[in-house]
User: Fold this.
Amino acid sequence: MALASKLKGIPYKWRQVVLGCTICVFVYATFYYTTYRSTSATDEAKKNYYFTEKLEPPAPLESMIISQRTHGFDNFESRLPQIQTIFNTESWKERVVREERAESIKKAFMHGWTGYKTHALGHDELKPLSVEPSDPFGGMGATMVDSLSTMLVMGLDDEFDQVLSLIEEIDFKVDTDISVFETTIRYLGGLLSAYELSDNPRKHILLVKANELGEVLLPAFDTKFGIPYYKFNPVTKEGINNSTYLADMATVQLEFFTLSHYTGNPVYAKKAQAITDFLDSTEYAHGTRLPGLYPNEVNLYAGYFSDSIVSFGAMGDSAYEVI
Assistant:
């Protein structure tokens, strides 16, 4: 009663403030107590698990990707772990929705592909406004090669079979400066992914062309530290740059390891691994203080990063996605 009489003397506005603060303190105390007890119990369970269970250390990544008994070509071995997810069984409603969405995406793809096939087939890309072909990636049919795996995923087997004959005619020894990075991800990646997905009886064409392209690109890695040129002429076998970007040099591992896996030739995997080894060997010499972060630009001949700018955007992004 005494407290009630005292509260009556307090303005209504301040009584609301006091009541609100009291409620907040009560809610916070309840939340903190329940969360703390729950977290403590969980942490204790985890601690008991880790200290009582004998956990086997994971296998070294190198043994999962590539195993080589000798340096000889004939004894090359490669094992790639499965990375595909296992999907749950979908309901008929989910299937209907998925198929409708897939059909819409397929129509959009066919719209773009028909335009390219009509006006720029064999060229790298089609300019949508001028409807003219363009060749920014060496003029070897980048859109055509890059679309192979998409066709297979969409079930466009007739389109794929038509393009396969054109793929066989590509000459990768073009007398122009090409980006090693773009050529690897678009052409080599396109050929290898289609080879993995296809059950076409002529799929061997894809691996043959991938190996041809791999051989064309190998001289681009003949630098002091094994770092590939930013741009490279397949005919003269000369690079035009003294430096390159992190994304360009460290985004070839997936394609080159896969090429070694299917051809049995370890040279491609060795070239890719040399880049990773170079990055590992730099430690903190380039000025960063966090392991695994590297500046954007490196000097090919000095084997040293040219600046200390680290970026997950352009010039650095895909390196972190791959390595």
Observations:
- The two ends are 72 Å apart (CA to CA).
- Residues 99-170 form one domain.
